[in-house]
Amino acid sequence: MKKIFVLSPLVALLAGCITFTSDCECGNDCACTKPCACKAAPNTLSAAEEAEGWQLLWDGKTLNGWVGVKNLVAGRNEAPAHGWEIKDGILTVLPCKSITKEGHWADLPPELAKLGGAGDICTKKEYRDFEFKIDYRLTPAANSGIKYFYNPKKNKGTTLEYQLLDSGHPDWNRGKNGSRRVSALYDIFPASENAAKKVGEWNTAKIVSKGNRVEHWLNGVKVLEFKRKSGEFRRGVNASKYAKWGTEGEKKYWGELETGRILIQDHQDSRVSFRNIKIREL
After folding, report:
1. Other CB atoms closer than 10 Å to residue 214's CB: what's the count?
2. How far apart are CA 77 and CA 103, in angstroms?
């Protein structure tokens, strides 16, 4: 009969077993059951993150620091009164419609529809050079996005978007060469690969923007890099739905604002959850 040896937590740690849960991304994968010793609790900063200059953008309890885009456009610096559910340290946008396989909106039961439809939310603060990360969890056929360099008064409120999308959504096969799939620069550049986890699991998206260089990351994999103001970027914009949305009167090109807010999209037809929303200014 084979002998089975069970390492104590201390011995396991010394042996290099520092990951105790399947969703901990800080080391070797081990068959332990204790919480990960090196990963901060949701919606908090680890000591290492604090030392690196990270800041929480969401406290896990309120929408302090965020404003509803509908309110912002109307001149009110307030968060939405409904439509964004906060429960157990998770921020969830609630839909007011459903989506058909053909890509058309369909009505939800009135008692559900009235809970959603609040619209996008964005940071009260504007950012220039930053590293931003967020955990997100999709439901089947869900659609959302993280927009950056957002300014409601520029380019009809459109801006760069890190696409969040489940493959069951009709938009998955639209766009060009996958430019509307997960972690793409929406409708402009596709991601190099699909690094997303299964629907219902938590993913970590990251955007790094320094000067004109931008990177999209998904679950620790760099899936896209581009340079704003470059010829390649402008050609990509000119081949996209945003080709005619530039602010011509100010001699600005689309997607090239120096500063802007970060926005989380309410696509109206999807239930999507978020947590661990953090930023580090560079």
Report:
1. 22
2. 33
Average pLDDT, the chain: 87
Longest dimension (CA), the chain: 81
Q: Give per-residue pLDDT as tens, 87-105.
A: 999 999 999 999 887 788 8
Calpha distance 215→221 (Å, rounded): 10
Read off the pLDDT of residues 23-37 as tens digits, 9 standing for 90 and up.
Answer: 444 433 334 444 444
Cβ neighbours for 9, distance < 8 A, ≥ 6 positions apart: 32, 34
Containing 207, the helix (H) or strand (E) segment is strand 202-210
**Domain holding 213: CATH number?**
2.60.120.560
Alpha carbon 37 to chain centroid, angstroms: 26
DSSP state, residue 193: S
Confidence (pTM): 0.85
Contact 123, 278 (CB under 8 A): no
Q: How many domains does the chain have?
A: 2
The two structure tokens encoding residue 14: 């010394």
Reduce the DSSP state of residue 83 to 3 states and report it.
coil
- Give the position of tokens 């406290």: 59
Handedness of CA 55, 47, 273, 137 (dihedral sign): positive
32 and 72 in a common domain: no
Q: How many CB atoms lie within 10 A of CB 273?
A: 19
**Whether residues 51 and 31 fall in one domain:** no
Residues 115 and 183 both lie in one domain:
yes
SS3 label, residue 253: coil
- pLDDT band, very low/low/confident/very high, at 9 (cuts 50, 70, 90): very low
